[in-house]
Amino acid sequence: MLKKSIIIGMMCVSVVGFGQTQCKGTTKSNVQCSNITKKENSLCHNHDPNHVSASKNKGETVICSGTTKKNAPCKSRTKDKSGLCHNHRKDK
Ligand SMILES: [Zn+2]
Ligand SMILES: [Zn+2]
Fold first, then answer.
1. Are 74 and 61 in contact (CB under 8 A)?
2. Distance CA 71, CA 47 (A)
3. Single pTM value for the model
4. The three-state (H, E, C) secondary structure of the chain, written as one string
5. Cα 82 to averaged position of ligand 2 atoms, centre (Å)
6. Distance from the alpha carbon of residue 36 to the mean position of ligand 1, in angstroms
7. What is the CA(88)–ligand 2 centre distance, in A?
8. Tens place of pLDDT for every residue, the chain, 92 residues?
């Protein structure tokens, strides 16, 4: 019984190993990305657009998409999901 479970465990590990593929994305120098990924779309966290947007919401700041009274783009940075700084969120 014990031996069987060890064999099954080893099989599981090897299946996970085969599930890993090289990222389909290319680097800035047009070389295939060497990162290994388990994702279905074969894109690592650097190339997967979904992953990038998720990490942005976690803490990276973006420049406010609002405009000033002079109709110039707002230069304030914000972490808010709306992409608006605290000055422009207040207005609404
Ligand atoms: Zn990649
Ligand atoms: Zn703003």
1. no
2. 35
3. 0.38
4. CHHHHHHHHHHHHHHHHHCCEECCCECCCCCECCCEECCCCCCCCCCCHHHHHHHHHHCCCEECCCECCCCCECCCEECCCCCCCHHHHHHC
5. 11
6. 8
7. 5
8. 667 777 767 665 555 556 789 999 999 999 999 999 998 899 998 898 877 554 445 567 899 999 999 999 999 999 888 999 999 997 44
- Residue type at 50 in one-letter notation: N
Amino acid occupying residue 38: K
Q: Which residue has the tokens 């465990």?
A: 9
The two three-digit tokens of residue 40, written as one number: 């279905």
